[in-house]
Give the backbone structure.
Amino acid sequence: MAKIIGVVQVKGGVGRSTLATNLAAALSLEGATTLIDGDVPQGTSASWGALRREAGRLGNLTVTTAQDHVELVHKARQLVGSQDYIVIDGPPRIAEITKVMLIMSRLCLLPLGASAAEVWATGDLVQTVEAARRRRPEIDVRIVWNRFREHTRSARELSEAVHAQLGLEEMQARLGYRVAYGEALGRGLSVSEWTDRLARDEFGGLVAEVKAALA
Ligand SMILES: Nc1ncnc2c1ncn2[C@@H]1O[C@H](COP(=O)(O)OP(=O)(O)OP(=O)(O)O)[C@@H](O)[C@H]1O
Ligand SMILES: [Mg+2]
């Protein structure tokens, strides 16, 4: 049975595709992994996958798309028996696909920039999570701090704000503001395959936490 990881956020440009592609690349080293791009026609993850395919780098990874929640459920049902991991890159809005991702994922990661504005913007998604939890109370949604810069606001302040305003758990590993994420994405690579050791290490820490959460 595949473990399903959804990457959800209503705000655009927060790092969903960065998180989904890097996570899919890392998990594909552990077992058969499918990355489903649910943010089409934009299709960042699908484009990244196409570059990887052209470079002969897919290995244990398959990359596909889902136009909407019906196709997502259909594909996940088809894949769940043959894959070890399914990673879903969601759209930047509360569409049916986001709700379905909350219901079907074992773990949902919610990338969030370290600013009050992004925390406020996530409020609507939190309401959607609460509504979904009425149907499935064990839904596990965790914030992943992205573009995290120590000097913007202290980590403790942000963490407290998130608990008070959003009531969500967070992953301990934080992703810094590093050009490596864009450089790797644009080449169909993961940061583990790129030259920035700090990015590689911090993402490695996140992958270890994700695996622990899925165990
Ligand atoms: N930690 C980071 N440091 C620096 N740049 C980053 C970081 N995370 C993401 N980016 C860059 O920010 C841009 C948006 O990231 P990404 O495409 O992952 O976000 P998204 O939430 O999927 O956006 P969209 O709404 O466009 O789908 C990309 O150019 C990406 O390379
Ligand atoms: Mg995206």
Summary: The chain has one domain: 3-214.
